[in-house]
Amino acid sequence: xxxxxxxxxxxxxxxxxxxxxxxxxxxxxxxxxxxxxxxxxxxxxxxxxxxxxxxxxxxxxxxxxxxxxxxxxxxxxxxxxxxxxxxxxxxxxxxxxxxxxxxxxxxxxxxxxxxxxxxxxxxxxxxxxxxxxxxxxxxxxxxxxxxxxxxxxxxxxxxxxxxxxxxxxxxxxxxxxxxxxxxxxxxxxxxxxxxxxxxxxxxxxxxxxxxxxxxxxxxxxxxxxxxxxxxxxxxxxxxxxxxxxxxxxxxxxxxxxxxxxxxxxxxxxxxxxxxxxxxxxxxxxxxxxxxxxxxxxxxxxxxxxxxxxxxxxxxxxxxxxxxxxxxxxxxxxxxxxxxxxxxxxxxxxxxxxxxxxxxxxxxxxxxxxxxxxxxxxxxxxxxxxxxxxxxxxxxxxxxxxxxxxxxxxxxxxxxxxxxxxxxxxxxxxxxxxxxxxxxxxxxxxxxxxxxxxxxxxxxxxxxxxxxxxxxxxxxxxxxxxxxxxxxxxxxxxxxxxxxxxxxxxxxxxxxxxxxxxxxxxxxxxxxxxxxxxxxxxxxxxxxxxxxxxxxxxxxxxxxxxxxxxxxxxxxxxxxxxxxxxxxxxxx
Length: 587
Known about the structure:
Layout: E1 20-34, E2 37-43, E3 48-53, H1 56-62, E4 70-79, E5 92-103, H2 122-127, H3 129-132, H4 136-158, E6 162-163, E7 180-183, E8 191-194, H5 199-207, E9 212-221, E10 232-242, H6 246-264, E11 276-279, H7 280-287, E12 300-302, H8 304-307, E13 319-325, H9 332-346, E14 351-355, E15 361-362, H10 373-380, E16 387-393, H11 395-412, E17 424-428, E18 433-435, E19 442-444, H12 455-461, E20 471-476, E21 479-486, H13 491-499, H14 505-511, H15 513-519, E22 526-529, H16 533-541, H17 571-576
Parallel strand pairs: 6-9, 11-17
Antiparallel strand pairs: 1-2, 1-4, 2-3, 4-5, 7-8, 9-10, 10-22, 12-13, 13-16, 14-15, 14-16, 17-20, 18-19, 20-21, 21-22
Helix pairs in contact: 4-6, 5-15, 9-11, 12-13, 14-15
EC number: 6.1.1.12
Protein name: Aspartate--tRNA ligase
Main location: cytoplasm
């Protein structure tokens, strides 16, 4: 070792007995037996070592020293009489002849016990993140993150990708979320934007003659937090390939990701190439979502014809979807809890009934189905003991509600969910266009830069809502890791694609001047994708919250409460960038 130590706190073994060593670290705990005997636990980045204080002089050096102070201990290694086989250093202890206080903790009480920090309130953890990160179980996730990123970087280099960093200060671009704006001091009234993604830059790199690009790219989006989405900023494994097709992108991702998940993941098996491919419309119909968890073997059935006129009001004139679960023996309390959670997540109700072992409909809405029992049994392929969950509404709402119901039923039924693996799939053939919920007008469904399937011919001759795009999503265990696409590199096709949503050539030139002009000088066909690094690591670690694998995350309100951001600035700073603040009026 270098620095002011001879070894780290996870390094000493029985073979070191008799050696004189110097250790440094945090004073984790002292079990004081008497005025001349105590057992001190010293912790550093690597682990812990027991220090046995055996003299009154050494004990006095620790009087008044608070836990979490940093200290240096010089002493002799010896064999422990009461060995701890659960610790790497559990066979030895160090008897000190010198103790030096390096950095005092001035507080008698800590906001939480270091080794129990995960039990503390989240805002308290984030405020004292530097203490939270001292917890070995918290720190280990950040260490693992570093190793995973290094592994991804190595694999991309091995495949001939060139790592290129793209600008952080750029122009505002419509990516689907709000931009973070940065005022330009030397250009009054104008703003930079932090990139929501390096989308345009990586496509311009392809037009510039680079063949394979990648980057562990920081992205900035002013959007709300979720369990699997950090507000403000996140990182993605951004990649793009020139003269490439959808198949080329799939082959790279299928080669890079599964080995990383298997090597570092809490589960040791991952899907092998080729991943299952599911068209978007099929995914919505079978799974009620475009990010299906394929560890669950349940699928949706359409029950509209057999249920819609059964006399149950919520089904009348609606699409009805069913989820049939065999061998589901949950209690009424569990069933009610699942239905309540469906309503919380979707704002729509779920319904149910059972076919008991005697072949009778019981529970839930069964009384509305008695007169058509045989028809329902035949239509849904029911067997005695089956549980049937139901949703109703307009087609998309019924599908999405059933998708949530499917996921909850699968999680509650060990028979229908494999929990110890990573199941990848591709969702393909997304619609190019959709009718906007708010505008009621034709809009791009996913990515305006995607190549329509059928090219110019499709744009000119097909009904817009029937046009599919070379657009694909990567999904793992029900979590969307990334969207990608074969890009629309042809200026004429691009103009036509935008015309259908009411934007002309001048609009395209104004919104994307650099990329459009670059394509006018001969652009190669190209395709790419950008799996989210944070989400991947969250899955690999088996964490439910993405904040657990980010070193310094914001809270749910997009606030860094450790640093106090966002914060006010003084008037001179505002004057320098020509900004005047107008606060909203209080209601």
